[in-house]
Amino acid sequence: MYDYAIRFEQDRAPGVAVFCRDLPEFNSFGDDPEHAINQAIDALETTLSLYVDQRRAIPPASAPLPGEQVIHLPMVTVAKIALWNTMMERDMRKADLCRLLGVHQAQGDRLVDFLHSSKMEQLENALAALGKRLAVSVEAA
């Protein structure tokens, strides 16, 4: 659902530019495709932060097109996306989440901060308070 497809474009200078159809605000760069993929995960999380700052729902990923490569986000990031989108569906603010969970503002802010590491248990608890359950599956690589 949030495995975003990226495409590479060779730049005139040495390096590779990276773009994502589903997240037009996203752009990244790497020395080569492997480096570009490593940079893309950080850039995707930074882009997701823009959606939170602008109080916009984060779009689901589209199926990859030929020539695109899929980026699998960390589980914690996917859980934060689910939490944020649930909040947006309910027109909730971060302060509303803090009141619901009985936590301080800084704790609540970190739950939807893609640049901050959170514990999965905290995200599970927040989702449960909103009537959601986090499900994990294991797939072959």
UniProtKB/TrEMBL annotation:
Please name the InterPro entries in this protein's record: TTHA1013/TTHA0281-like (IPR035069)
- This protein is called what? Antitoxin HicB
High-level lineage: Bacteria, Pseudomonadati, Pseudomonadota, Gammaproteobacteria, Pseudomonadales
